[in-house]
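[job 0412] stage=fold_complex status=start
inputs:
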Amino acid sequence: MDFNLTENQIAFQEVARSFAQKELAVHASEWDAKKIFPKETIRKAAESGFCGVYVKEDVGGLNLSRLDAAIIFEELAAGCPSTTAYITIHNMVTWMIDEFGSPELREKFCPELTSGQKLGSYCLTEPGSGSDAASLKTTAIKNNNHYLLNGTKAFVSGAGETDILIVMTKTAEKEISSFVVPSTLKGISFGENEKKLGWNTQPTKAIYFDNVEVPQEYLLGDKGMGFKIALKGLDGGRINIGTCSVGAAQSAINHTQKYMHEREQFGKSLAQFQALQFMIADMLTQVIASRQMVRLAASKLDSKDAQATTYCAMAKRLATDMCFNVCNQAIQIFGGYGCTQEYPVERLMRDARVHQIVEGTNEIMRVIISKKLLEEGATLQIR
Amino acid sequence: MIKEFDQKLDLVKQQNIIETLKDLQAFLGDTPLKIAVCIKAVPDTETKIQIAQDKKNIDFTGVRFIVSPYDEFAIEEALKLKEKHGGETTVISVGEGEATDILRDALARGIDSAVHVNDPDFASLDPLSTAKVLAAVIKDNGYDLVLCGQQGVGGDNNQVPAMLAELLDWPQVMLTVKAEIENSSFKVEREIEGAHETVEGSLPCVFSTQKGLNEPRYPSIKGVMAARKKEIVIKDANALGLKGQVSGQLAKLKVKEIALPPSRPQGRVLEGDVDSQVKKLVELLRTEAQVI
Ligand SMILES: Cc1cc2nc3c(=O)[nH]c(=O)nc-3n(C[C@H](O)[C@H](O)[C@H](O)COP(=O)(O)OP(=O)(O)OC[C@H]3O[C@@H](n4cnc5c(N)ncnc54)[C@H](O)[C@@H]3O)c2cc1C
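[job 0412] stage=fold_complex status=done
writing structure:
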C-alpha cells in the first residue's frame, strides 16, 4: 500500500494544473457573472485529453483509471469548479456509450465526444422524479424500427448547448431503458435556462420530448438495462463531483492562505490571529481527508470492488459536505471582501453548494450507505 | 576538368533543370527540417526571489523551475514548422537536475528528442560559454534551424542566440515575431524599435523568438505518456570535446555581487489647485529629487 502518486500521476496533475491556471482560473469569474458556457475552452481541454479520460483509446480516450481522473479533475476544478463539473458529466456520458454502447454506437459517437467536437448531457431527472429517479415517466414506445420518445427531463446540465443526450425512459411498465439521442432530432425542445445559485458557467434546462423518433440502434445496452446503466454512470459521476469539491476547497485554501498574510487589522496580519489559524488548520485537514476518501472510492471502482457503489456514495457525501464548509469558512476569513465578487471564494462556495445536491443528494448518499451497512454481515464487507 | 564541368553546368542551366528540380521539390512538398530548440530552466516567475549567502546568485532552495517563457515560443514554432514541413525536432538544455523537467515538458508537447548537457564544469556559465556549449552540440549535426527564446527570464542577458549564431557562422534573426520557411529559405519578421523588419535569407539560421510569434500549446496527457517513453540523451564536457575549454571558472564574465532592488519609498500625492501643485512639484524636483 502506497499513498504516493506515481510519476505519471504527478505529470498528469501538472498538465491539468497548468491548463487550469491559464485557461480556467483567469476566466472563471467572468464566465460565472455573465453566465458564459465556455465551449471553445472545453474543446481546448479535449486537445489535452480531458474529454475522454477513462474512455478507451480506440475511440480517442486516454483509457486512464478513475484514480487518475480524480487527480486530473481536481486540478481543473481548482481553476473553475463549474466548468470542470460539466466536463466530468461529459466524461461520464462518453464513458457510458463506450462501456455499454454497441460497436456501431461507440464508433459513431465516442470519437466526436472525446475530441470535444460534440458535447454530451445526462438526462435522468424529471420534474416529478428527482431522488426517486426510478419513478421517471418519459416513455419510449417501439414503433417499427424506431422508438417514439415522449416526456420531460428536468435540470439537464449543458442542455441546449450539447449535442448528444443519454436519456433514461420507460420502455414498459417497470422497465427502464437508456437511449443515445442526438439533440437535433425533430420534436426536441428546451426550457429556459434555470437561474441558479452556482454552476453558472453551464446552462441547466428542461428538455421536452414530443414524439421524437429515435432509431432502434440508438438503444444503449439491452432493453430494460437502462436504470442499471444510469446508476453505473453515477458511481463514477459521484467521484467526479466529490473531486470537483476538493479542487474548489483547495483553491479556497490557496486564496485564504495568501489573504491572511496580506490583510492587516489591529496592526497585525490576519495570519497572526489564533482563531483564524485554527480555522485554516481545520480547513486543510478537511480537504486532505476528503481528497483521500475520494481517491479511495476511485481505486475501489478501478479494482471493481463489490462495495464500490457504497464507497462512491460515502466519498461524494463526505467530500461535498466538508469542502462546502471549507469554502464557506474561507468567506468568513475574507470578511466583507469574501462576500464580493472581487475575490473568488464566494463563487467557489456557490459552486460547491450545488455538489451537495447533484448526482444524488447527500441524503440519498446516506440512504445508499445505510441500506448496505444494515445488511447482514455488512460490517465485515465494508470498512 | 573545371572547364568541362562549367560546360556541363551551362547545359543544365540552359535546359532549366535546376528550376525544374525546384518545381518538383515544391510539388512534392518542402524539404523536411531538422530543428534544434535551446531551452533554459528558470525560477518560476512567481518565485519570491532571495539572495544566496555568497551574494553571487539567488537562493535556489525550494525554488520551482519552469521553462523560460520565451523558450515556449521557440518550442511551439518548432512544432508548427515540423507539422508543416515534416522533419525532426530536438530540445537542448544546459543545466543540472532542474533541466530534466523542462526537457520532459517539451517532449510532452511533441518535440521528438532531447539532449541534456550536464557537467559540474558547466555550472554558472556566462552567455558566451553557454553559446559555446550549445554550438558544440549543434554543429556538424545537420540542423537546418536553431530556435532560442530571445532571452532567459531571470538573467535577461539577450546574448546566447546571437553568440550561438556567430559561433556556428550562421545568419541570425533576433526577436522573431513571424516566420515562414520555404525550400531552405526563410522570410522572417522581427521586432525593431517601434516597427517590424522583414528579413530574408537561406538556412541554416538561428532565430530568437519573441512574444507574438505564436500561442504555445499545452502538453496533453497523451503527450506526457509518450514523453515518458522518449529518451533524454545526456552529454558532458568530455562528450562534447570541451573539457578544460569551457567552464564556469574560465568564463570571462564574473558576477561580483547581486542584490535586490532597494525597496521603493511610498509615492507622494500633491494636493491643492493646479498652480500650487506645479509650484510644489518644481520645488521638490529642485530640492528633494535634485534633478533640475
Ligand atoms: C445545477 C443542477 C444540475 C443538474 N444536472 C442534472 C443533470 O445533468 N442530469 C440529471 O438527470 N439531473 C440533474 N440535476 C438534478 C439533480 O440530480 C436532482 O436535483 C437531485 O437528484 C435531487 O432531486 P430533486 O431536485 O427532485 O429533489 P427531491 O428528490 O425532491 O428532494 C428534496 C429533498 O428531499 C430529500 N429526500 C428525498 N428523498 C429522500 C429520502 N428517501 N430520504 C431522505 N431524504 C430524501 C432530498 O435529499 C432533498 O433534501 C441537476 C440539478 C441541479 C441543481
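[job 0412] summary: The two ends of chain B are 77 Å apart (CA to CA).
[job 0412] exit 0
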